[in-house]
Amino acid sequence: MPTPAIRAARWWSLFDPRATHGRLYLLLLALRTYSALHGHGYIHPDEWMQSGEPYFGLTLPGINAQLPWEWRPDHALRSLSALRTQYLAVDVLLGAARRLGPLSGRALFWVQRGNMLLWTLLLDVCVARVLPPQTARYVHYLFGVSTAATTFLVRPFSNTHEAHLIAFGLLHALSFYSDRSWHTRSGAGWHYGVLLAILAVDGVFTRFTFAFFALPLATAFLHRLATIAAQGHRRPALVLLIITTLALAVCAGSSVHAETGFYTRSATANGTEVASAWGTRWVVPPLNALRYNAKTDNVAQHGLHPRWLHAVVNLPMMVGAANCVVVAMCAWQYVWGAAEAVPSQKDTSESGSEGDEAEKDAIQQDEDDTPSTSATSSAPHTSPPNLDLPNIDLEPLTTALCLATIALPLLALSLSPHQEPRFLLALCFPSTLLFALHLQSPLLRTRSTLRRTLLTLHTAQHLVQLLVFSHLHHAALLPALFHIDTSLSHLPTRGNALFDRYEHHLLYRTFPVPLHLIPHKGRGMFPRVQHFTSTTTPAHMVRSASIACDDTWIYAPAWIAPQLRDEAQRQGRVQLVRVASFAGHVDMDHLRESCAVARVDGWRDAFALHKLEVRCLSSTHPEPPPPQPTPAAAHHDL
């Protein structure tokens, strides 16, 4: 958590429900909380298969989770230490859930979403502590209603953790620049280097793309140290640089040591090789991920996209069209202002050394005044004029940092032929900060129509995306899993599993099933929960279900259910009867088929996941179907 150099007095007043801002913030927080705890939208398999599935599969006994291929020792693309940091509050929340009763799938869902919700609250507090009050208010409004905050940041994506770390890093850099006297105080400033090292190592081990987002922030940190050294404070600048370097080495070394131990033990247990670095015994997951994604043949397995997709489609989707307009305006003003500054600097360079001495005196006077004014810096409207200088001086730096943090990663990630919208999630906070700053600029303050248009566009787009991604996109799968878990919880825990726990729950043509959300299944063969992908034909699906008819249920989207019933009628062995439906299941890849079903059965039944009971039509059970190759689902991100 960034530590501001100038602590705002009563920064918590921004959350006071008696004030207008406090009430608006709590309203947006309630929207975010509802989306986190009741938004069953399943955006991408990595949401669960790269977070909760490996975490609980490795830490929670009795969970029948399946490790994705990225977690195999011969690939070693993921970091367990980074996942533990992302799930920092999970164990505490898990303990609280245990006190309320036996763990259920819904409880594990709430534990993970609650953990990610706490990360967003920490970011809100950091915004209030570091940014000027009015800017913080605008950030709370704009970011609070965004798709990033209400939908993506409350989900356990690795992109989510990366986005949080970038936001913390940006606030940390601004806090570091705003502290104008740390180098004059004995023993001060070391925490800046330590925190920077922790953020950097955790970010790189979370996703190697973090380096692209964080490079401008690291450059700003080094530039600040160089400036302080040039002002005659070489010793504190050098000491902080050494502390930062040592902290980086310690954090990186401990992470590599932890990953090496984890993957080595896994390789020994499974009899496989370890993807070590440069022929050594050390395992460095971000390096393995970089090597994997550098090969086009590898990323081609997960889908190839045009290289303009990020800039033209994904960026407006993730950060918002209004944010894109504001970023373009800021970039134009910044470049135009820099071009105009060049001749003006030439004109003023003849002022001589007297001007330089006066500027040095002003800077020194400002440094001397900082400690005594820290208590009132949160209220610039009631402070003497000189107390506003730090905020005014930091605005060009904030603009430059945000623009660089947006432009450099966008360019770097656009070089890859595999581009997904969530890869740009970390750009949401810097673009929102630019929007908040620009709302206070003369350009938007004097153009009320443009201002209202941008704010309306921003709010409308993100509310629509909240509905689609958080409450409709494959949103029936998780309730179906909770239903299965509840059904399994009613089975006896003792006795012959073949007779007493014999249930088959088959899921067809859905996203991959996170088995850790069905904790009552256990590790045994029975009861059975099995997932079938598009490589399985309806005919094979029906034959598989007919083996244990009367004890089997199929869960399938409404658009494929008629084909299953027709196939069952053709085979003449079983009858498929719909016994339940889970509404709100929108599959973007099969909208045409769903709309065709809607014209016959209605919209509610068309966009739903149907539970089909497999009933025997004869006493003779069919022979088992021949095995059909079902390659592993290719779900992967950078």
UniProtKB/TrEMBL annotation:
Coiled coil: none annotated. Residues 343-390, 618-638 are annotated as: Disordered. Residues 371-385 have a biased composition (Low complexity). InterPro entries: GPI_mannosylTrfase. Signal peptide: none annotated. The chain crosses the membrane at residues 190-215, 236-256. It is found in: Endoplasmic reticulum membrane. GO terms for molecular function: alpha-1,2-mannosyltransferase activity. This is Mannosyltransferase.
